Amino acid sequence: MARSRTKKRKRPLAEGVVRPPKPVRRRRPGKDRPPSPRTVRRAALLTGLLVPVLMTGLLAIATNPDYAVLCTVLALLVFIAGLGGLMVVRVSGWVLWPGVLLGVVLLGVTTAGLRAELIAHRGVETEVIITSAHRATDRSGRVSWTCGIRRADGHPLPHASYGGSGCSSTAGIGTRTTVLVDPAGWAPPAATDEDLPFLGGGLVVTAGAGVLWALLTLGAARRTLRDHGRDRRRDQGRDQRRDHG
Length: 245
Description:
By secondary structure, this protein is α+β, with helices and mostly antiparallel strands. The protein is built from four helices and five strands; from the N terminus they run H-H-H-E-E-E-E-E-H. It has helices at 37-61, 68-89, 96-122, 202-244, and strands at 124-137, 143-151, 161-162, 176-181, 190-191. It has a five-stranded antiparallel β-sheet with strand order 3-2-1-4-5, with helices on one face. Strand 4 and strand 5 (190-191) form a beta hairpin. The longest helix is centred in the C-terminal third of the chain and has 43 residues, at 202-244.
C-alpha cells in the first residue's frame, strides 16, 4: 500500500500546559552592524583622496590612443570601487547619487579636455597626405569620416588618422591637407579647424569634480561619525538609567 502523504497534525496540549516559546535566532556577529568609526575614517581618506587622483591619472594617460581603452577601463573600476567606499562611509542617505554624477563627469570630461589642451598648446601645423577614408554612421544616422594620413615629408607619424577638414569622402584620398601634430607623438593629430571639446574649461571641470568628490566623501564621513557619537551617548544614558533603576 502506498504511504499516506497527509500532513501530520500537532497534538493539542493538555489543559494548563503552556507551549514553550520558540528559540530566538541569533544573528551572526557583525551582521547588520554599522562600520566602526575607525573603518569610516580609513574609508573616507582612501575614497575621498585616492579615487579622484587615480581616476584623473589614468584618464590623463588615456589621452594617448595606445592606452585609451585599458586606462579608461581601469578608471571605471576605480570609480566603482569609490562608490563602494562611499557606501561604507555613509550606508544610508543621498550621498551615492552625487558621487555617481561626479564620477561620470570625470570619466566624460578628463580625457577629452586634456587631449584638447595638449594639441592646442603643443600642436604643430604639418602637411600630410590622406591615404584612406572610412565612413561611420551613429545611431542617429549622422555620418562621420576618419582618414588615414602620412606626413608629406616621409617622417613617421604616430596615430596616423584624424577626422575633420579635408576628410569627408573617399574622393579626398591622395590630396594634401594640414593638421595639428603633437611633436612628442602622444596626442593624436587634429584638424586645424576642429572645435576641440572642453578646451579651456576641461581642466577646470576636472579639478572641480575631484575637489567636490573629496568634500562629499569627507562630509559624509563627518556626518556618520556624528551619528556614531550620538548613538553611543544615547546607549550610555540608557545603561545609566537602567543601573539606577
